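Bench notes, afternoon.
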Amino acid sequence: MEHRALGRSGIDVSRIVLGCGNFGGLGSATAYFGAGETEGEAHALMDAAWEAGITTFDTADAYGGGRSESFIGNWLRAKGPEVRDRIVLTTKTFNPMSDGADHGLSRERIRRQLDSSLERLGVESIPLYLAHAMDPAVPVAETIGTFDVLAAEGKIRAYGGSNVDVAWLEEGLRHGRPDWAQNSYSLLDRDDEEGVIEVCAREGLGFTPFSPLAGGWLTGKYRRGEELPAGSRMTLRPEPYLHLQEDRVFDALEALEAQATKRATTPATLAFAWLLAHPHVTAVVVGPRRPEQLRPALDALELDLSPPERDQLTMLFE
């Protein structure tokens, strides 16, 4: 497994990052806390990731209402220091931990939430810490200043922002030293190309996209005129992807599938390879539901698309 430095943080991450958002829930959605992967299923996913050379795990305090962090912490304790000391953890804060609980990025709340994350994960310091969203009620300077103090105290090593825009990132750079951004980015979601990725390139920051398959759309599972697969993202939390249900998207997906067939691979593998070939993508966050779903991302590491080949895939979705 290839590793890369995450911006100027001094921390190396595996190019494939295990996204743990479905451990004990479906992301931060309080209605689904207790759903998602059981602890046994989560441990099997972490075992498979570790065996594949993935050393970076991504979670958040609110994933599963704290269950994701707890599952990871229990797995680390079971594996012992030889594994624990080689895993690079990312966790985040912003969302409520239960219905009616508080949320946000105030100084007091960040400190409280970080302490609870450290306890659930069973570690003394978080290598990588993220604001999970932008908080319009709290100045960016307060959030960034809190992260700086926590880094000075040794509770975190590096920090950044997830689901952030250019204005948040630029303001953060004026008040501190964020190391990277983590936003949605894929062949079907390219808004960050003219903005956040440009800032990351200019400032030497890392960029670790999530939702690389656009909620499963880039796997080929959603087909023109066919019923949605039972249990798929589009049947559970379709709102972010409703705009994709149009002919131009299906045209592009069918063209992507044709390109994959020519290469004797899958659309998902090509979609991962497209991301990994971007010069400013540090690593890609992958959220498999079963161990075998890691395979397309791992296969993509072997494709090594040239710039013209990447451009050809980009043009399919223009």
